[in-house]
């Protein structure tokens, strides 16, 4: 797969050259407008990310009516907070309880709820996670530092269609009376994929 | 297809590698590869199912040794050539030497927010009644199509139960082949870990997989 351009751009790797060639060609041909690429990157770098999902979870923890709407029609409930669109068209919220832990994977590609979590991390798209999450979720969770009681049921959701899953982690103890905003600081990206629990508030004094 | 992308249950890849405070992109070219893929998707020249098939038909050794945005880049190279938007020669030379083909739209910076907010819903109007209802026992088909499919190998020829009726959704198997959306019922199906992996499975494991009606038989 080597190209003949190395004499022009000796400092660039094969993949850098390929991406550059694509962008140059597709621009010359009028199929893309480079400022739109900048805007796409900027959007996912600054506007769409796991803070969105953390707001959803914190609201569900504090507002029982919102919680009910989220569990019955997550797409609409999430849209109430302004999060709609690409890779979040058909949302389902799945809730952890004392006896059930949910974990999300896409074994076939990298399906992920972009509207609430942003772009997936490398590990989520990697072969180790995609291959083992469905067969040995407890072993995978250990690698994330999570050990669940043996009696806990584990539900693994393989995102094979255009339905996207958001895990609602359990609200940590010791957060009674906390505001939504303060609670949202405890809701990490991984806790909404199901590879972590929400943060322990006793370790969060400095953010309070 | 039984390609390298169908990873569920495969072994030998080692532990999950975690990175603290991971950025969205690890290099400038990843940003461009990501945005190029989305912007070219917006031209309406192919469907999301076709683009997935372009990636999973990469030779397994290449798929498994490429980073994710390398896979996207190689997939995009295939798509633009297969759809006649550029020639292989132009790609090699990084220079346009032929006429452009008309595309449905070109994404402008000002349209990005509205295009992303709109997304691409996959649900469609019901045309026929659903064959299954919540609680029905099903068995997934034993099948090994060479075309795109979303029934993972690990869940074929396995008994499960309908847990959710999602509605009628675009059928990826036909859509990826340019045979149209052929919308059909999509179900959330629950499987016992032991029915998929055998008696060695974690007894407390259950799996949920979203599956289209043509993948399922009554059990």
Protein architecture, described:
The complex is a heterodimer of chains A (208) and B (219). Chain A is an alpha/beta fold and 208 residues long. Chain A has two domains: 14-46; 50-207, Nitrile Hydratase, Chain A, CATH 3.90.330.10. Chain A is 42% helix and 12% strand. Chain A contains eleven helices and four strands. Chain A has helices spanning 14-28, 34-46, 50-62, 64-72, 74-79, 114-117, 122-125, 127-132, 137-143, 180-184, 189-193; strands at 90-95, 100-105, 153-158, 163-168. Chain A has a two-stranded parallel sheet with strand order 1-4. The longest helix of chain A has 15 residues, at 14-28. The radius of gyration of chain A is 20 Å and the shape is globular. Residues 1-7 of chain A have low confidence and may be disordered. By secondary structure, chain B is an alpha+beta fold. Chain B has two domains: 28-118, Cyclin A, domain 1 (Orthogonal Bundle); 123-218, SH3 type barrels (Roll). Helices cover 30% and strands 17% of the residues of chain B. Chain B is built from eight helices and six strands; from the N terminus they run ααααααβββαβαββ. In chain B, strands 1, 2, 3, 4, 5 and 6 form a six-stranded antiparallel beta sheet that branches. Chain B is globular and about 55 Å long. The two termini of chain B are 25 Å apart. At the A-B interface, helix 1, helix 2, helix 7, helix 8 and helix 9 of A face helix 1, helix 2, helix 4, helix 5 and helix 6 of B. Strand 3 (153-158) of chain A pairs parallel with strand 5 (205-212) of chain B.
CATH architecture of the largest domain in chain B: Roll
Count of the domains of chain A: 2
What's the architecture of the largest domain in chain A, going by CATH? Alpha-Beta Complex
Largest protein-protein interface: A-B, 81 and 92 residues
Q: What class, by secondary structure content of chain A?
A: alpha/beta
CATH topology of the largest domain in chain A: Nitrile Hydratase, Chain A
What is the number of helices of chain A?
11
Please state the CA-atom Rg of chain B, rounded to the nearest Å: 20 Å
What is the assigned CATH homologous superfamily of the largest domain in chain A? Nitrile hydratase alpha /Thiocyanate hydrolase gamma
Unreliable runs of chain B: none
Instruction: List the quaternary state of the chains.
Output: heterodimer
Helix proportion of chain B: 25-40%
Low-confidence sequence ranges of chain A? 1-7
What can be said about the biggest beta sheet of chain B? Answer: 6 strands, antiparallel
* Overall pLDDT level of chain A: 94
Task: Give the radius of gyration of chain A.
Answer: 20 Å
